[in-house]
Specification:
The complex is a heterotrimer of chains A (325), B (672) and C (134). Chain A is 69% helix and 1% strand. Chain A is mainly α and 325 residues long. Chain A has 2 domains: 178 residues, Cytochrome c oxidase, subunit III, four-helix bundle (Four Helix Bundle (Hemerythrin (Met), subunit A), Up-down Bundle), CATH 1.20.120; 97 residues, no CATH class. In chain A, helix 1 packs across helix 2. The N and C termini of chain A lie far apart (62 Å). Chain B has 672 residues and is an all-alpha fold. Chain B has 21 helices and 2 strands. In chain B, helix 6 packs across helix 18, helix 11 packs antiparallel against helix 12 and helix 16 runs antiparallel to helix 18. Chain C has 2 domains: 70 residues; 63 residues, no CATH class. In chain C, helix 1 runs antiparallel to helix 2. Classes of the chains: A mainly alpha (325), B mainly alpha (672), C mainly alpha (134). Chains A and C meet through helix 1, helix 2, helix 3, helix 6 and helix 8 of A and helix 1, helix 2, helix 3 and helix 4 of C.
Chain lengths: 325, 672, 134
């Protein structure tokens, strides 16, 4: 047995021979744990893939209810907090205590910002009757809407976000602005007129489906009429956003599934962010006391890995939930 | 064991252990708290042993309840008429009247078409009886007789409903307790925790605190199950309680299939929460094992010089890491489904119940390999040691463990052949399932070849290992029937399946667990057990098990469905034989327990190496000291037994000092 | 018990400019993935979105999470996790797409019963068309 320097390093546990062995063990243990995190989210990604795969139109329709801007901002916030975390690990390794403290604080602020934006998103969903579980306007049980009185408002809310896809090639920034302006002021662009007209006719026709979602002919016949009268709409490049009415009754009943999956995925992710914030706060306190340095930075490193995996999962969640095309 | 039993502790050279080294992990600290807050992997292994075996007992009680319920007369549906006739007579007689036997026979005469004629016949019989009975006796009137018949029918229905309810809860709890609380943690958590660091020549697992946390997670999960159980029992005793605190017990089957599990009134949320917490226990153990095997191997122990038990535990840990989180999310979704009404799995909410089965079996099929792989590791050790021969095909056994671990993830759909899975996936899963036979057979053939030409000692660990090979072969070969798509349609959800998975899960895993317990028992407690009674225990368990479950193959092939509390008289004889076997099995298991307790109380001191094995756990005294090794042992080939010599006076093997320069070198190095 | 094979292991400190370069790349990729949504590429959109996400994930894993300088086993844990998620999703998705025809059939029959036949035929076309567009 090596009796060397065991007693010199207070952080070396008795069953390890060297600090390097201990550090490597901690790392591999953390990575194995992160694998379990990925598999756990994998279950939700599977549910997502199955519902999107079998009902693409439902997802295409319902994702308009999410605010892409807030999602994109959140992505940037989380990426930035990942950067500060990685910087913090570097600072701990180099023994730069002030930088480490600042970086941990910035990372923590990133987490706060992310959760704050998430709260705004959630509360706007909640206020429009688009909440988790049975508190959702689209919630259907045994073929019946359980909250029919909220349905019209919810559809209006979602479809005011809806954006036509006609302006191909034009890119992000101006477009995002346009969309915000559009949603806020109802300022209708010329090439959106058709879609807008349809928006206004929507609640009424959707109303016909309320209370009797299995009543196929009403929804369908209007759709046929539309195809015959305006069939060219599907051929030309000018595309109308998918509306609730465009979905067949079978799919209309599945809109709430999108919200369930959205809340499950972002909710579980949010819980992970909160746990990460708690851990970073703990690191922050310890860093203030000067615990970490070149000889002992394992906790910073491991929490960093955890924070990055949370970021990594969001990297997949963002395009899958907000950027459905 | 030999007749001359040693009375004092000896080290690996057969020398008595001096006073200052007598301290071992059992005596190192005393008091309950020293156990509850211990970070010592050996103590945690022992705590797991106590907890897991307690739940084995609970699950076993339910097993016996099931078997006994299936031999009760009410389980045989063809007894219905006899029951109702008896009850009709009893009801009439309790009202003070009599009824002639002939009237009852007419009343229950099968195949009657003309009801009025039958009524007249009965009335004639009743009048005759009344006139011949005399003044004192009262013969029942026809309308009263009909009332009595209806009451009897109602009573039978009520009894049958109770019987069914009780049966449903019993088989569910039997399955859930046995799977989640016994079989999955049994070998990794008890034996794995105890021997893994010893086999590595290490002082502890990589993360001792997580190891203790995993035990507390286990206990936490177990508490949920006890809550379910206790609620069920109290509700059964005091039915009004159900209105107060909701349903107890569990009747979904251990699989929690939706949509039934989202609708039933039993304590599904508590049980799934329990399984969720138990998953953490499993994951923490697995993280520990993977990190330990990666980082704590001693110098000289390369990946392909590890004992096969470590390969098996490593493969198991990989499965636990990759599969358990999916179970966690499945159960969370199920809880969310019940609590908030999200509809991922419930068809009434637009959900997809087949998706639930994909989720569930993505964990639960690999879980079968969580149960069987460490069992195979134990058998690999035992077969080689008790044949006094180097294991045959080491690399093949090691790699087949990993192959099974990976293939185990690609076959889950074979649980869903009849549940609406698509034809394409049915075929794919069927083919991949057949492939599992390859690594499994590699193992079995290598064990057999290891024994070939060996000098085999039939001590109890070896008997259990041989029992394992027998049972696993039967379980595995019948698995091919089950994997065959067309045959599966016939035998799906019959006792054939029940017998198959009991042969694999119980037969194989339990036998290997017992093999491991008997093999490492002297190391764990430093006490010998009565070899003679241990062999008797093996015989009873082996015979009892085969009687119980072999007959179920036949019963299942004849069409007896599983999870039914009643059957027609065609199956009566099989059920009775099976129950008889289960009682023999029970007696055998209690005998094993008795042997162990007797060993703890009266057993003689065991030598450091009673079996002549060469893996590192035998290179320390029995029981091991707190820090496992006084001197770090050198990692040599774990299956090379040539350095160990039998020493009758200590009834154990000692290291041949002349032929082990490396060991002496190591000691010299460490002493300096 | 000495771990001589790890003796020369030393901890790698990631240079700041690498961190910033990676961050810049991640932001550019985020803008790209939002932008590409506005372009209709048919079925390709989802794969581009996923591809960009994978590139971003690889960047985070390699540089922020140090995998590039780490023990290969650690990276293996991550890769294996993703592979098994892929296996899980692959089988489950393929299966549900396959059996969907049986799930939809009752609804299809309903429609056929309630509609005249000519009306039912275009209904098939429009749903197919609209789903293929997006």
């Amino acid at each position: 047995m090596n009796k060397v320097d065991d007693n010199h390093d207070p952080h070396l546990a008795h069953h390890f021979d060297t600090p390097v062995q201990q550090y490597s063990s901690a790392k591999i243990g953390m990575w194995v744990f992160l694998a379990t995190e990925i598999l756990m989210f994998g279950g939700l990604f599977c549910a997502y893939a199955v519902y999107r795969g079998t009902h693409p139109d439902v997802f295409l329709y319902a994702h308009h209810f999410l605010d892409t801007n807030l999602g994109a901002i959140n992505t940037v916030v989380l990426l930035a907090s990942s950067l500060t975390m990685a910087w913090g690990v570097r600072a701990a390794q180099l023994g730069q205590k002030p930088i480490l403290v600042i970086m941990l604080l910035l990372t923590l602020l990133g987490g706060v910002g992310f959760m704050g934006i998430k709260t705004i998103e959630y509360s706007s969903k909640y206020s429009h009757g688009l909440w988790f579980g049975s508190d959702n306007a689209f919630y259907v049980k045994s073929g019946k809407y359980t909250n029919p009185e909220e349905l019209t408002g919810a559809i209006e809310y979602g479809e005011s976000h809806a954006m036509p896809h006609e302006d191909k090639g034009e890119l992000t920034d101006e477009h995002l602005e346009l969309q915000v302006k559009d949603a806020a002021t109802e300022d209708v662009l010329d090439n959106q007129a058709a879609g807008e007209a349809q928006d206004q006719s929507l609640p009424a026709s959707a109303q016909s489906n309320i209370g009797n979602a299995t009543n196929a002919p009403a929804g369908l016949s209007s759709k046929f009429a539309e195809v015959e009268g305006d069939g060219s709409a599907y051929v030309t490049s000018e595309k109308k956003p998918l509306t609730y009415e465009d979905l067949d009754p079978q799919q209309q009943k599945l809109v709430s599934q999108f919200f369930q999956i959205y809340f499950l995925m972002t909710g579980l992710h949010g819980i992970h962010v909160l746990v990460g914030m708690a851990l970073i706060f703990w690191l922050f306190i310890r860093a203030l006391r000067g615990t970490f340095g070149p000889k002992y930075f394992v906790p910073v490193d491991l929490v960093g890995l955890y924070w990055h995996i949370v970021d990594l999962i969001w990297i997949f969640l963002f395009p899958l939930l907000y950027l459905i095309h | 064991m030999s007749a001359t039993q040693p009375t004092q502790q000896t080290d690996i050279f057969g020398k008595p252990v001096d006073e200052q080294h007598k301290d071992n992990y059992l005596t190192h600290q005393r008091g309950l708290m020293s156990w509850l807050f211990t970070l010592d992997h050996k103590r945690i292994g022992i705590m797991y042993m106590i907890a897991v075996l307690s739940f084995f007992f609970v699950g076993g009680v339910f097993a016996i309840v099931l078997r006994v319920m299936l031999t009760m007369p009410i389980a045989d549906a063809s007894n219905q008429m006899r029951f109702e006739m008896n009850d009709t007579r009893n009801i009439v007689e309790s009202s003070g009247a009599t009824v002639p036997e002939e009237a009852i026979k007419l009343l229950y005469e099968p195949g009657v078409t003309d009801a009025e004629a039958q009524q007249q016949k009965i009335e004639v019989v009743l009048t005759d009886a009344a006139s011949s009975a005399g003044a004192g006796a009262k013969v029942v009137e026809y309308p009263e007789l009909i009332n009595a018949r209806d009451a009897a029918a109602q009573k039978y229905t009520q009894d049958l409903t109770n019987h069914n309810t009780f049966y449903n809860q019993s088989f569910t709890l039997h399955g859930a307790v046995m799977v989640f609380l016994f079989i999955i943690p049994a070998i990794p958590a008890i034996i794995g925790n105890f021997v893994l660091p010893l086999m590595l020549g290490a002082k502890d697992v990589a993360f001792p605190r997580l190891n203790l946390a995993s035990w507390y997670c286990y206990m936490g999960g177990a508490l949920f199950f006890l809550w379910v159980l206790g609620k069920g029992i109290l509700n059964f005793l005091v039915p009004t309680l159900e209105g107060v605190w909701g349903g107890g017990g569990l009747d979904t089957g251990w699989t929690f299939y939706t949509p039934y599990s989202t609708e039933t009134n039993t304590a599904v949320v508590a049980a799934t929460a329990g399984a969720f917490v138990l998953g953490f226990s499993s994951i923490l153990t697995a993280v520990n094992f993977i990190a330990s095997i990666h980082m704590l191997r001693p110098k000289g122990m390369t990946w392909f010089r590890m004992p096969l038990m470590l390969w098996a535990l490593y493969a198991t840990a990989v499965i636990q890491i990759l599969a358990t989180p999916v179970l966690a999310i499945t159960l969370l979704l199920l809880i969310a489904e019940r609590a908030f009404g999200i509809g991922i799995f419930d068809p009434a909410l637009g959900g997809d119940p087949i998706l639930y089965q994909h989720f569930f079996w993505f964990y639960s099929h690999p879980a079968v390999y969580i149960m069987i792989l460490p069992a195979m590791g134990i058998v690999s050790e035992v077969i080689s040691v008790f044949s006094r021969k180097h294991i045959f095909g080491y690399a093949f056994i090691a790699c087949s463990s990993m192959a099974i671990a990976i293939l185990g993830f690609l076959v889950w759909g074979h649980h869903m052949f009849t549940s609406g899975q698509s034809e394409l996936l049915n075929a794919v899963f069927s083919i991949i399932t057949m492939l599992v036979a390859i690594p499994s057979a590699i193992k079995v053939f290598n064990w057999l070849t290891t024994m070939y030409n060996g000098s085999i000692r039939l001590d109890s660990p070896m008997l259990y290992a041989l029992g394992f090979i027998w049972l696993f072969t039967i379980g595995g070969l019948t698995g091919i029937y089950c994997a065959t798509l067309a045959v599966n349609i016939h035998i799906h959800d019959t006792y054939f399946i029940v017998a198959h998975f009991h042969y694999v899960m119980v037969g194989s895993t339990l036998f290997a667990f017992l093999a491991g317990m008997h093999y490492w028992w002297p190391k764990m407690f430093g006490k010998n057990y009565s070899e003679r009674w241990a062999r008797w225990g093996w015989l009873l368990v082996f015979v009892g098990f085969n009687i119980t479950f072999f007959i179920q193959f036949i019963m299942g092939a004849l069409g007896m469905p599983r999870r039914y509390a009643t059957y027609i008289d065609k199956y009566t004889i099989y059920h009775h034989i099976s129950t008889g076997g289960s009682l023999i099995l029970t007696v055998g298991l209690f005998l094993v327990l008795f042997v162990w307790i007797h060993s703890l109380l009266k057993g003689k001191q065991s030598p450091a190496n009673p079996w002549g094995a060469n893996s590192l756990e035998w290179h320390t005294i029995s029981p091991p000291p707190h820090a496992n090794f006084d001197h770090a042992p050198p990692a040599t080939d774990p299956y090379d037994y040539s350095h160990w010599r039998w020493r009758p006076e200590i009834a154990g093997y000692v290291l041949n000092e002349d032929s082990e320069p490396e060991e002496k070198d190591a000691m010299a190095r460490n002493d300096s | 018990m000495s771990q001589s094979k790890h003796a020369e292991y030393h901890v790698h400190v990631v240079p700041l400019r690498v961190l910033f370069a990676v961050f810049a790349a991640l932001i550019i990729l985020t803008i790209l993935t939002v932008g590409v949504t506005k372009v209709d590429l048919g079925g390709l959109n989802i794969w581009i979105a996923l591809g960009v996400a994978v590139v971003k994930a690889v960047l985070v894993a390699l540089y922020f999470m140090h995998l590039r300088w780490d023990s290969p086993y650690n990276g293996l844990a991550l890769v294996v996790a993703f592979v098994f998620v892929g296996v899980f999703i692959g089988f489950a998705l393929k299966d549900s797409l396959e059996y969907q025809k049986y799930v939809e059939r009752p609804a299809l029959l309903d429609r056929l019963q309630q509609q005249t036949i000519p009306a039912a035929v275009p209904s098939e076309e429009t749903t197919e068309e609209s789903s293929s567009e997006h």
